[in-house]
Specification:
By secondary structure, this protein is mostly helical. It is built from five helices and no strands.
Length: about 170
């Protein structure tokens, strides 16, 4: 006999995942480090055709960071990538030599040009990604710490309210 279950709402699932992220073992610094790794990797993942995504796993292991935080940072990086891609290209153009060209034999010139643009995006993305990761680490860590402190304070107030309620309702026996 199969019973039909009501599917969980997306809002409830997102709230659950948010709660898991806020209560992640290791505290806010581990989650913020994972977020920084995720956004750093995202800044150069598009020109590598998504292969840079696999770089997240060894970096998470190496730095002992949060995978959930890294995935949130990766998604956040996807949202902001288009405006930042122009900056990545400019930074890559500043870092790479001006006379640099890529010549792959037996391919049309436009493919060589695309490879050069992708190289600029990769180099600029690595630089900008490291800077963004470093800059966003601290606000993410502080916001998670603030939410954790707020939660602790709320639990403390609830516990005090329950204790005073027990004292008030306790009958006096003498």
């Amino acid at each position: 006999m199969s019973t039909s279950r009501k599917p969980r709402s997306i809002k409830r699932w997102l709230k659950f995942k948010y709660t898991q992220l806020m209560r992640a073992p290791g505290g806010p610094s581990i989650v913020a480090l994972g977020f920084a790794i995720g956004i750093t990797v995202e800044m150069f993942t598009l020109p590598t055709y998504g292969l840079a995504f696999f770089l997240i796993f060894p970096l998470i292991y190496w730095f002992r960071a949060s995978l959930a935080g890294a995935l949130v940072g990766f998604v956040f990086g996807k949202i902001i990538f288009i405006p930042v891609a122009f900056i990545n290209s400019m930074v890559g153009g500043l870092v790479l030599p001006e006379h640099m060209t890529i010549r792959v034999p037996l391919v049309p010139e436009w493919i060589n040009h695309i490879l050069l643009v992708n190289l600029k995006l990769i180099v600029g993305g690595i630089i900008d990604g490291i800077i963004l990761g470093f800059l966003l680490y601290f606000p993410v860590k502080l916001s998670i710490q603030y939410m954790a402190d707020k939660r602790k304070e709320k639990r403390k107030q609830r516990r005090i309210a329950l204790e005073t309620k027990k004292v008030e309702t306790k009958p006096l026996t003498e």
